[in-house]
Automatic annotation (TrEMBL):
Protein name (database record): Long-chain-fatty-acid--CoA ligase
Pfam families in the record: AMP-binding, AMP-binding_C
AMP-dependent synthetase/ligase domain mapped to chain residues: 110-272
Residue intervals of the AMP-binding enzyme C-terminal domain: 349-420
Transmembrane segments: none
Pathway membership, UniProt: Lipid metabolism; fatty acid beta-oxidation
Bilayer disposition of the protein: Peripheral membrane protein
Tree of life domain: Bacteria
Protein's cellular compartments: Membrane
Length: 426
């Protein structure tokens, strides 16, 4: 699941756009100010797996694909281990490093004819080695209605679905400027965003929680008019915290993935989406269903070879007429002595505590019952709330959960852990 801009007015996948309407849009990256048309022209093999050394290099590869149709996998070196490199070369991709506009061949791929205009996205790999999902620039360009001028923050790892969502918006729409943050600068992104007048930002709940935890006042000074969340389960606590900081902004959460594209968009400030949306068919719109407790999506924005209903592997719960996406099927449910509890539900209870900035809920072996619920917690800044101790959080959970769902061990962390994907594997 990925965060993305609002795909209202999108159309089904088709051929690559012929013009780059956003070529004059401003880009700020690596301390440089330039436009799309200022990026260097580079000679890339096709098919190519490009390992970009910087944000500018990643954008350069994206524009080369847009203008020349090079069959492309785009990533950073840190996301491609030796085993994945072997998989790519076996599939015919020549692996190249792109550093300051210089192309260096690392591994030559098995010879085959390229597939023009094809983009391949690497999944996050949270359930194993990353897989390739085929798209085109057109199938990734989900925002087609005319947008008000905005300056977008792009904090994502190059080549991910969410990265392409922000990048295609800037490539194809005039007035959509881009401020790209390198991984080493992520802790300082509110200052960078404020300095360059960022008005729209997309990130995971962990990304937003980390910014609030580090310096909520600095975050509040960013002139944001559009905030988007996705990539992880979105609970009411983070929506309410962002609404308090940005009372006049539109706050959206989006369900999107490499496999099914941007499929669910919610703007009403509430966690979950209306159950009335289930099984609702409309032209060029995804159809959302639930089978058992799994989210099923039939989408016009799906990856290559994924037509029809796609089992997402995401677990849902329907509460008070809202459908909540709570976690992965293979990791969300905890069996405590025969009674089952959702790790997502326990996490939501913990993060609803005013003294908790972030929580992760898992299980560990226990005598008699087999497994017991455990948690990791990052307290909210002491200036806002007195940090809770373990006993206080256990009591909070006892008042809101059945006994088998109450964490038996709570470990406190100083910082919110975050991966390159901006997720924390909750």
């Amino acid at each position: 699941m990925s965060a993305a801009p609002d795909p209202a007015g999108s159309a089904a996948a088709g051929s690559r756009p012929t013009g780059l309407a956003g070529d004059g849009n401003r880009i700020v990256a690596n301390g440089r100010r330039l436009t799309w048309r200022d990026l260097p022209a580079v000679e890339l093999p096709s098919p190519a797996a490009v390992l970009a050394a910087s944000a500018v290099d990643a954008l350069t590869a994206a524009r080369q694909h847009a203008t020349r149709g090079v069959e492309l996998v785009l990533s950073t070196a840190s996301r491609v281990d030796p085993g994945l490199r072997d998989d790519l070369t076996d599939a015919g991709f020549t692996v190249v490093a792109l550093d300051r506009g210089e192309v260096t061949v690392l591994d030559k791929g098995r010879q085959r004819a390229p597939e023009p205009d094809r983009l391949w996205l690497l999944t996050s790999g949270s359930t194993g080695r990353p897989k390739r999902v085929g798209h085109t620039l057109d199938s990734l360009t989900t925002v087609r209605t005319v947008q008000e001028p905005r300056t977008w923050l792009c904090p994502y790892a190059p080549g991910t679905y969410a990265w392409w969502q922000v990048v295609t918006l800037s490539l194809t729409q005039p007035g959509q400027d881009l401020v790209v943050v390198e991984p080493g600068d992520l802790d300082d992104w509110p200052r960078i965003a404020g300095e360059h007048g960022v008005t729209a930002a997309s990130g995971t709940p962990t990304f937003w929680r980390q910014a609030i935890h580090r310096d909520g006042q600095a975050l509040a000074r960013v002139p944001l008019r559009q905030l988007t969340l996705g990539g992880e389960p979105v609970d009411q606590a983070i929506l309410d915290q962002l609404r308090q900081l940005f009372p006049a902004a539109r706050i959206s959460w989006i369900y999107a993935s490499s496999e099914v594209g941007a499929s669910i968009v919610v703007h009403d400030g509430r966690a979950g989406f209306p159950a009335a949306w289930l099984d609702r068919a409309a032209p060029d719109r995804p159809t959302i269903s639930v089978e058992g407790d799994e989210l099923i999506i039939r989408s016009p924005y799906h990856g290559a070879g994924l037509s029809g209903p796609v089992r997402t592997g995401d677990r849902v719960e329907i509460v008070d007429g809202r459908v909540h996406i709570v976690g992965r099927l293979n990791s969300d449910e905890i069996n405590v002595g025969g009674s089952k509890v959702s790790a997502g539900l326990v996490r939501h209870v913990l993060t609803a505590h005013p003294g908790v900035a972030w929580a992760r809920v898992t299980s560990r072996r226990a005598p008699i019952v087999g497994r017991m619920v455990v948690a990791e917690v990052v307290p909210a800044p002491a200036a806002d709330h007195a940090p809770p101790d373990e006993a206080a959080l256990v009591q909070w959970c006892r008042e809101r959960l059945p006994d088998y769902g109450v964490p038996r061990r709570i470990r406190f962390l100083d910082e919110i852990p975050v991966k390159e994907t901006l997720k924390s594997d909750v």
